[in-house]
Structure formats: C-alpha cells, structure tokens
Amino acid sequence: MPTPDRNLALELARVTEAAALAAARWMGRGDKNRADQAAVDAMRLMLDSIEIDGVIAIGEGEKDDAPMLYNGERIGAVVGGSDRGIALRGAAHGEVPLVDIAVDPIDGTRLLSLGLPNALSVVAMAERDTMFTPGHLVYMDKLAVGPAARGKIDINASVKDNLHAVAQAKGKPVSDLTAVILDRPRNKMYVDEVRANGARLKLISDGDVAAALSAALEGTGVDVLFGIGGSPEAVIVACAMKCLGGEIQCKLWPRDDSEREYARQMNYSLETPLLNNDLVRGDNVFFSVTGITDGELVRGVHYTSGGVQTESLVMRSESGTVRRVQATHRLEKLKQFSGIEY
After folding, report:
1. Which end of the chain is more exposed for a tag (fewer CB within 10 A), N or C?
2. Are 231 and 140 spatial neighbours (Cβ–Cβ below 8 Å)?
3. Longest Cα–Cα distance in the chain
C-alpha cells in the first residue's frame, strides 16, 4: 500500500481559522472593506507558511481591485523554480507540491458587516493547472445538489424536471424539497418556477458558497441550489463537491456584449455546461471552511473567558474524509509570535 502523503486540508484549516479570527473583529461594524482586508492579510500570511509552491487560480482580483491574493499571484513557503517541485499527487516528504489555490477570505462580506449569519472563510487547493479560471466572466448560472442526487440533474432541463429528479433521488415529494436561491432580480425566473412547482424556497441575500455547501450536506434542510451567482465561487464549490460527493453544474453568464466577446476570444462556450471535472480537474483536492458568523454549516467565532472558539469543516477528496474541527485559541499566546491583529 502507498505511504499516506500530506493532508494539506489540515494545514488549510489554520489558514481559514486565521482569516475568520481577523475578520470577526469587524462583525456588525458596517465596514466591508476593512473586514475584507483583515481577512486577506491573515490568509496571505498563513498561506505563505505552508510548504507549497502555489498559484492563486481563484482570488480577489477580478471583481475587486485587490493588492493581495489576486489571480496569478505566487504563494507559499517555497515559490519559484524549486528543483524539488513535484505534482501534488506524487509529493512525498521533502518534496514541494505544485498547487492551484482558490480563496474567498470572506464569503458574505456584507453579511459580516451587518452581523448577519453565514459569513465564512474558505480556501481550496488542487494540483497545479487543474482549476478553471473564468477571468472577466464573473457570473455563472448554477445548479448544485448533494450525493443522493448526483448524476440525476441537468442544468439544461427545466426547474420542474430537476426538482422531480432530486425528489425521486431523495425519496420524498417535491413539496418536501427546499431550494436555495440568491435573491437577485436576475434569478426571478428560478424563484417563480420553484414556487409554481410547490417546493419550499429559501432566499438568501449573499453567500452562495455557503448555500451550495448546504445543498450538499445532510442535516441543513436544503436540497438543491438554483440561480446565477459568482463564477469564482462556482470553482470553489466544485472543489468542495469533489470532497463531499455532490455535484455542481454551471453555464457561463455574460452580463453584456464585451463579456460575450471575451468568452469568444477565450474559446469558452456559453451553451456547454461546466461540470465538476471541468471546474476542477484534479482528484486530489483539499478544502477548508471556517465560520465567521453563526450559520447552518458551522458556528461563527465566539469569544469566551477561556479564549476564542472557531469551528471548521476540513475535507479531502482522495479519502472522502470530512472533519469538523472545533478549536479554542488563546489570543495572548498567538499575539506573542503572530503578525495578525486578532
């Protein structure tokens, strides 16, 4: 049997914990920019402590003019021309894995700024050159489900057909299903169709990474995600689906003629669905998400007399293991050696 290699997901947990701790100080203070900057700074510092040669494939740069964690940025403790660099799957002790990294320092920045639930910090990692890079195409039409309905859905089919497919796969009537949709005018058709077919509906104001994960995990009360949301988030969700056994299907959704022309220049089809393996081709995927504010997936950051508590979900596709990590952090100790303002 092969010797077990590094589980980088466990190292990523420290990254999302640090970003969540830094961002949590800004909960409810109405300043999205400073909250995001705190999370970005903490995430960048911790990623640079990991023995990887990484490239940011999905970063902060396309929708935000971000100075760090931008698309294409090199990151990790060992970057650039290492003669020990090796593909992630083959990396052994003393060898440096070459990886793509997808980051969302705060999924739900507005939620955090208002003190609302479901703000998360997220990082995913896979083999180098395996993550889809949507570039200037910042939106995708999405359909996501958990393991029970994997292989049963079709983004080209109607909402009605997909609801019935999910209901049959899960062994319950459509009226017992709950669909989650990002509450935007562009998604009105999905809202109307879900209501017309008798399913329950959960509208969210922000945070479609959390929404898609809730469709893939048992016990959240959500069965399927529909609607148009961020394309970087779609790639991040695909990484999680590789670990959870769920499925996401997407189609690029250009907002105007310039984005349609960009898609043509990049030879991206606007009609052909992008499946899990199109969004992230790697089979050795690592994923970590830490709660910033309380939500259905994980608890947020809590301050107690004994320290600061965080909760994370940590996953790896190759083993299929999903860990729930509850940690207590002693800030007086962290501040002795950390450059992060917790």
Report:
1. N
2. yes
3. 59
